[in-house]
Design goal:
- The structure is a single chain.
- A hairpin with a 2-residue loop joins strand 2 and strand 3.
- This protein has two domains: 177 residues, Gcn5-related N-acetyltransferase (GNAT) (Aminopeptidase, 3-Layer(aba) Sandwich); 100 residues, no CATH class.
- It is of the alpha+beta class.
- The radius of gyration is 19 Å and the shape is globular.
- The model has no long low-confidence stretch (mean pLDDT 90).
- The strands form three sheets. The protein has a seven-stranded mixed β-sheet with strand order 1-2-3-4-5-7-6. A four-stranded mixed β-sheet has the order 8-11-13-12. The protein has a two-stranded antiparallel sheet with strand order 9-10.
- Helix 1 crosses helix 2 and helix 7 runs antiparallel to helix 8.
Length: 295
């Protein structure tokens, strides 16, 4: 981690303007997708959490979110069941891979706990393996909600051209599993450990052209308490090389996850594996009856 980086709450107008400009660097190409600084300041003044990471005077990363409430039925909200809706986390491209994003999330967790809130939620693209590793493996989130085309047609450079499918995740900030991941320093099991417990890969990928993996022709129905779902290890690179294959993977993984969630499975871990010199990526899904320490 970058020891020279400092993190503090953002409150000033000029700080919000820095967040606005940083968005343009991280997600280039679509001005309409930029959250205005005045809106972020409004969030900060009304129960939200807005945090910035700084190297000297330079804003290198930020995270912000706002108060929400859990739904208790169609069109109904539970005012006594507040949650934190984490809307954006971004790190300047020149400062990535230094642990800044992780430190921002830990600072966000601390702020949320101090507000007396036990749950934070946000969305992320499930087919991006670095997102899966960061959110599930490192932070300890769980997920059983898949949203098709969550934000419609997005126009920024990272998302343009494909449906904006997202996981809608739950981060129970004081749960035993989260404490183990972010405070206890406990290393979760590996692929061989999960296979030893009976986990089966529902959709083992096959070799394709140009060294790119193609999705399985068949999807195995989940039958045990632990199952694995494979995704591409570098979806953004695949999108550049073979856009139609990337689209096929999007549709394929959508089917796999929606099917598993319908059978009451939750995403509970993520694994990077080296297989014969190439990287493979897997989500672990656990049946709800078998998962421990959720809340």
């Amino acid at each position: 981690m970058d020891a020279e980086t400092t993190i503090h709450t953002l409150t000033l107008t000029e700080e919000m303007e820095k967040v606005e400009e940083l968005q343009r660097i991280i997600w280039p190409g679509s001005e309409v997708d930029i959250v205005p600084g005045h809106m972020i300041k409004t969030v900060a003044r009304n129960g939200g959490v807005v945090l910035g990471a700084f190297a000297g005077e330079e804003l290198t990363g930020y995270v912000f979110g706002f108060l929400g409430a859990m739904e208790i039925g169609e069109g109904h909200l539970a005012s006594e069941s507040l949650k934190h809706c984490s809307h954006q986390l971004g790190v300047h491209p020149d400062h990535r891979n230094r642990g800044i994003g992780y430190r921002l999330k830990l600072a966000q967790r601390k702020a949320v706990i101090e507000q007396g809130i036990q749950l934070a939620t946000w969305t992320y693209d499930p087919i991006l393996s670095l997102n899966g590793y960061f959110n599930v493996r490192r932070l300890g989130v769980v997920c059983n909600r898949y949203i098709r085309n969550a934000y419609g047609s997005m126009r920024d450079g990272l998302n343009i051209g494909l449906p904006s499918d997202r996981f809608d995740i739950d981060w129970y900030v004081n749960s035993p599993r989260v404490i183990d991941r972010v405070e206890g320093g406990i290393t979760p099991p590996g692929l061989s450990d999960y296979k030893g417990r009976g986990a089966v890969i529902l959709n083992p990928a096959k070799a394709g052209e140009n060294g790119l993996l193609s999705p399985s022709d068949q999807i195995t129905a989940p039958q045990s308490s632990l199952v694995l779902v494979e995704i591409p290890s570098d979806f953004l690179d695949m999108k550049e090389v073979n856009f139609e294959l990337a689209r096929t993977w999007r549709e394929h993984t959508r089917e796999v996850f929606e099917g598993a969630f319908a059978e009451d499975y939750l995403v509970s871990d993520f694994l990077f594996v080296k297989d014969g010199g190439e990287s493979r990526s897997y989500y672990l899904l656990t049946h709800r009856e078998a998962i421990e320490g959720l809340r």
